[in-house]
User: What shape does this take?
Amino acid sequence: MSLLVPGESGLADPLALLGARFFDYAALLKPRVMSLVVFTAFTGMLFAPLPVDPLPGLLALCAIAAGAGAAGALNMWYDAGIDALMLRTRLRPIPAGRLASSEALCFGLLLAAASVLALGLAANWLAAGLLAFTIFFYAVIYTMWLKRRTAQNIVIGGAAGALPPVVGFAAASGHIGLASLVLFLLIFFWTPPHFWALALVRAEDYDRAGIPMLPNVKGHAHTRSAILAYALLLAPLGLLPWLLGYASLAYAAVAALLGLALIVFAGRVYLCREKPEANRCAGQLFGFSIVYLFLLFAALAAGRLLAAAPLAIAG
Assistant: This one.
């Protein structure tokens, strides 16, 4: 990368160049995905049998965040070719030419190793092993294999995005508990309708890149039916934490309302068949699905924090 500013004989502001590269490296981490990973991992920690010490808990969350960022960087490294073909991703750092593929690869590998080591030292090696498996699953099994070979890529690959609560629970407790597996199921069954809604809107993008998303392989009508089916399954699953005694009645009320709203949005996608209304309905479902998962886990986290508050005061 040249330091010469076009039309000038001097050097460009080094701080400006350093800042630009910082933001490009930060983009490799997929910050929005990372924030969701950290939030769900934190919720998993709250479900551990014993309270988490603040400092080790914070260090563990930082390690999990770094692991999520490493997976994102490795994903962007391998997907640079197809990212360049898609309108949604063509301005990412590698296809836009702001970072070399080798830089992203080295950054991702180093960050992955550091995150796993840090989590092992800050928490325990079970959590570190789970984090390593999560990174491997997302970067290798999903990105390098499933994504390009099957229309069920999101269904199977969704396991990677669903594992952070299990990692968080293991970091806090040293084992894998039923509560963390319930949280895993919620994210696992949330993932297909969330991404298929996006795939309906971006079907041409995926077709151009040769990615076998469900609308491109099975058609839009089949995808709408699948989205509705998953919504009908996910809505009652949202009540599972309450049914198993991990959450309060207040959470159950929130989960029921969110589940009903999810079914309404998915039903509109099923009924909307003509563009541009079909794309608008799918886009609305995609946006609401993010709100759905955030509020569901926020209600779970709030309930656990409120339940723990009297114990903390008494202690």
